Amino acid sequence: MNALASLLSVALWAGALPLFASTPGASAVGEVSLVLGKAYVRSVDGGREPLRIGMSISVDDIIETGTNGHVHVRFVDQALVSVRPSSTLEILRYDYDQQNPAASTVKLNLIEGVTRAISGKAAKEARQNFRMNTPIAAIGVRGTDFVVSASKQSVRAFVNEGTIVVAPFSGACTAEAFGPCSQNSLELAGGAAQIIEISAKSVAPVLLQIPGKVLPETILEQSDQILAETGKTEHEKAGGSDIYTDSVTTMAVSRKIADGKELVNNFVPPPPPPPPTPEYTPDVVVPAEVLTQNTQLVWGRWAGRQLENERITVSYAQAFSEGRQITIGNDHYALFRLENGSKELKPGLGILAFNLTQAQAYLSTEKGAELMDVYGGLLNINIDERLYSTSLQLGHAATGKFAFTDSGHVFGGGIFRNRTDDKVTVGSLSIDGTEAGYFFETTVDAGKIEGLTLWSVQP
Q1: Which of 100, 118, 159, 334 is the most exposed place for a label (fewest CB within 10 A)?
Q2: What 3-state DSSP class applies to 317?
Q3: What is the percentage of the chain residues whose pLDDT exceeds 90?
């Protein structure tokens, strides 16, 4: 390990976050692991404060996100809940029995918005005691990864893995109860090209076909517009719902109603939608004069020659031009920055949100290093709180599509970094806060992933 790598290793450990760095108050049942944009927590005593990475979450806490807010909470049983923009989620109960997980009890309340829930040990071992309430319906699970969109008018859900049971509130299905309800309920399993939907005017949920070119979560997060493109379902023509689908003929071939449940027979799902087109890694090497023009941050190589599949790096001499100085780096690259004699950030930057502009990532296996797809990302930096959080959407034939997420501390001169057992992120801001860049490393089952990113501040 060279001297620069050794120094970075020591510094990164200093930036690592403790597990459940609790704030004073009620016993913690979870910890905030990611915050993007504006997000807050309301406690039982009525207090409201901005969410921060590492903040503990307790029973009766209410998580609120703004229009650009996104929060991840990791619970004590390793469950993960993602709260999307313009959403409100209440933690009603979280009794996890580590010695006997089957005796655990969990209840969440999605007041409005969109959330994704990935079951932990409590929900997997005590399915009869897990419940997610919404304004008009109860949701039970059978060891599940699912996404829910809720309002006072309708509730929609999509299942990535496992099964959910959705039922409207009634005398036999009260908000105070736990577990799935059976009366007027409907099940949806993962892998189906469908969403489950119930409106405030209907007595039972229905299954709706997902248009072939639309991702399920897009439907849940962007309301009815996507489904409205091609006309109403028979259910809507009868006045029972406010959601549209692509065609009546693409619904199930036949339907039967039995014991208050809607059964779908002879359903042949369409082929899965194509993945989004990667846009952030250039198809060919970008000329050095383009990478260094009108930009403050440039990735330079220690080595003189260009490595295989390089896209967004220049030679050391080219990166050092125009007075740029090295900020951070690893064994292969360094991020060069225009400084004009000062390493101090422009004062008063506050909270910064960035758009991804360019990236390159490699998956290294026994066969060598192969270029990965990069579909997008988020980067938020809070200079006042000295914290950052980021997410990158990556893909490869050996890994499938997945998200790299990380968070950590911001240090003097706009340097930000974090290190855990399975990932490393080290980056820097430009002096005026309009640009950012970081390298990252992580390990997955298929091999080791390394990458570089460049970002521009959102207008």
Answers
A1: 100
A2: helix
A3: 44
Domain spans of the chain, in order of start: 21-265, 288-457
Q: Which amino acid is at 135?
A: P
Q: Which residue has the tokens 């009815």?
A: 224
- Whole-number percent of the chain with pLDDT over 70: 78
Rounded to two decimals, the pTM is 0.50
Check if CATH label 2.60.120.1440 holds for domain 21-265.
yes
Q: Where are the alpha helices (DSSP H) in 126-268?
A: 216-221, 234-237
pLDDT surpassing 50 at residue 219 = yes
> In which band, very low, low, confident or very high, does the pLDDT at 220 lie, cut at 50, 70 and 90?
low
Q: Which amino acid is at 297?
A: L
CA distance linking residue 58 with residue 36, whole number of Å: 20
Long-range interactions of 241-249: CB distance < 8 A, separation 24+: 241/154, 241/197, 241/199, 241/201, 241/202, 241/206, 242/153, 242/154, 242/199, 243/154, 243/156, 243/197, 243/199, 243/208, 245/208, 245/209, 245/211, 246/209, 246/211, 246/212, 247/209
List the structure tokens of 136: 């008009």
pLDDT at 215: 54
Mean pLDDT over 131-151 rounds to: 91
